[in-house]
Amino acid sequence: MRIGGLASGMDIDQLVGDLMKAERIPLDKIKQKKQTLEWQRDEYREMNKLMYEMQTAARDMNYEKTYASKTTTSSNEGAVSATAFPSTLSGTYKVKVDRLASAAVRVSQDTVSAVGQKIDSSKAFKDQLTSFKTAPDFSVGL
């Protein structure tokens, strides 16, 4: 137990505490300034992050794939497939099949002849070339 200021009537603990408060004022101001600077630093970091994201988005806009990409789908991929280019207009397109394609075939109906000689359509053409080599010219009828 401590009895302070008994003889003088002054509270020494109170006086020392008040003097220490006065000495801590500059330290408290520095701590407050430090806290303010930390808040500013955090805000600058956040602003720099947002600026970086904006610059990245602006740079990506130079690439066509970023903002002009198109996709295609087909209800029957086995029948129709499509490719979309950035210049393709958006929309739904329908394909109507009027008739199916078939391989082109030309069959001779004995219309190729050379000086009275005709091609036999039942035999291979390569086997019949000798008869045409002696002929001076030949004609093809359509």
TrEMBL record:
Pfam families: FliD_N. Residues 8-103 form the Flagellar hook-associated protein 2 N-terminal domain. GO terms for biological process: bacterial-type flagellum-dependent cell motility. Signal peptide: none annotated. Keywords: Bacterial flagellum, Cell projection, Cilium, Flagellum. It is found in: Bacterial flagellum. Transmembrane segments: none annotated. InterPro entries: FliD, FliD_N. Belongs to the FliD family. This is Filament cap protein. Homopentamer. GO terms for cellular component: bacterial-type flagellum filament cap; bacterial-type flagellum hook. It comes from the Bacteria.
